[in-house]
UniProtKB/TrEMBL annotation:
GO terms for molecular function: glucose-1-phosphate thymidylyltransferase activity; metal ion binding. It holds the Pfam family NTP_transferase. Its cofactor is Mg(2+). Keywords: Magnesium, Metal-binding, Nucleotidyltransferase, Transferase. Catalyzes the formation of dTDP-glucose, from dTTP and glucose 1-phosphate, as well as its pyrophosphorolysis. It is an enzyme of class 2 (transferase). Transmembrane segments: none annotated. This is Glucose-1-phosphate thymidylyltransferase. Belongs to the glucose-1-phosphate thymidylyltransferase family. It catalyses: dTTP + alpha-D-glucose 1-phosphate + H(+) = dTDP-alpha-D-glucose + diphosphate. Residues 2-241 form the Nucleotidyl transferase domain. It comes from Desulfurobacterium thermolithotrophum (strain DSM 11699 / BSA). InterPro entries: G1P_thy_trans_s (IPR005907), NTP_transferase_dom (IPR005835), Nucleotide-diphossugar_trans (IPR029044). PANTHER family: GLUCOSE-1-PHOSPHATE THYMIDYLYLTRANSFERASE, GLUCOSE-1-PHOSPHATE THYMIDYLYLTRANSFERASE 1.
Amino acid sequence: MKAVILAGGSGTRLYPVTQAVNKHFLPIYNKPMIYYPLSLVMLLGIRDVLFIVNPTDLEDFQKLFGNGSKLGMNIEYQIQEKPNGLAEGLLLAKEFIGDDNICYMLGDNVFFGHDLVKIMVEAKREIEESGGAYVFGYYVKDPERFGIVEFDENGNVKSIEEKPKKPKSNFAVVGMYFYDNEAVEIAKNVKPSDRGELEITSVNEEYLKRGKLKVKLLGRGFAWFDAGTHDSFLEAGEFVATIEKKTGLMIGCIEEIAYRNGWIDREQLLKLAYPLRKTDYGKYLMELGG
């Protein structure tokens, strides 16, 4: 399985801040927003990652991650000229994906939960063994802002709809999707919505029609932030700060994960930590490396 992280877009919901800087570089507490989805991909053991980025931001992404070798990974980049919808990312990633299955992540989503990695591993295994699509639902108070999934009385998925004016439930589909290789072909046949975008919900709808869409609800004990608005951005930062201060452990620390995965050795960890040594983040890595 390969990972594709969508990190383009114009970030209009965070204007005026994002008129000058890509939102994925903004700090969620003590690290860039983009570290959080990348860290989850790494926790799954996925080393091949494609970032889909704006033309103006490519150089900054390369400056931050390079080709991924410093983390023991293979990181590539694909330009998205204009934000034409989330499903377009699957089309842009076609060559990178090849014959593999896909972990598709939104770059502005932050997740946390005790069993989060466990259920992600379960989703990955489900796709690798049975194919189809595996997505996650989360209860929200403002369902008209999201792709919404409706269930019948037996808990089976009944419908899925993008930003409905009259939502049929309060369960939003969050920005973490697992697909088999058919997703690319499905995305090719997606027609632009009334908003003029290629909606990822249309891809999920097709899997539902085929009887191959599985939705798992993230209930109590899980936190999800769509950090693309000012309020959710602030909430995500405060949440991460609280957890890290209480536990003494980092969330979304990509260097730590690479080290614990055995992708880099102690010498490389300390090399990455040294330029950051004046920060709490750098000190954390230095202590980790002994």
